[in-house]
Amino acid sequence: MSAKPSVLFVCVHNAGRSQMAQGFLAHLAGDAIEVRSAGTAPAETINPSAVAAMAELGIDITAQTPKVLTPDTVQTSTVVITMGCGDTCPYFPGVDYRDWTLDDPAGKGVAAVRPIRDEIRTRVEQLVEELLDPGQEQAR
Fold first, then answer.
1. DSSP reduced 3-state for 8
2. Which residue is catalytic, options 80, 83, 89, 102?
3. Closest CA to 64 of 6, 112, 115, 16
4. Which strands sit side by side in the sheet containing 6-11, from one edge to the other?
5. Which of 26, 74, 85, 113 is catalytic?
6. What 3-state DSSP class applies to 53?
């Protein structure tokens, strides 16, 4: 595959889980993977507890803003990862869809968001390894 892989993280409000996932992927993969996030019903702002939890690890997501999910964004992605909104995501043949079951950080303090953040980091690390070294995944 010569084209750079593109990952889209989708959650309902695009304010917590998907923003943290986007932050981790951008941090871990740099520009080797295109990363975007969107929501089916975007919030006005990013969850402050998600921002604080990411800042604890040196990842600044304050410049991100919740964005609405569009069919074009889905169609132009290599992998679409849904987090609690799978049924409302448009389906296009050839796109790799995955659903990550994760608690919603909405309304939770930083202490409650940390385990969610850490689970997202683990999954994003595995995704980076898979997308940047596909032979490694097959060898297992």
1. strand
2. 89
3. 16
4. 34-39, 6-11, 79-83, 96-99
5. 85
6. helix
Reduced 3-state DSSP string for 18-42? HHHHHHHHHHHHCCCCEEEEEECCC
- Catalytic member of 11, 35, 50, 120: 11
Dihedral sign for Cα 17, 22, 25, 27, please: negative
Locate all alpha helices (DSSP H) within the chain, ordered by sequence: 17-29, 48-55, 71-75, 110-132, 134-139
Note if 11 is an active site residue: yes
pLDDT tens digits along 4-63: 999 999 998 999 999 999 999 999 999 999 999 999 899 999 999 999 999 999 999 999
Inter-residue contact 70 to 42 (CB < 8 Å): no
89 is catalytic: yes
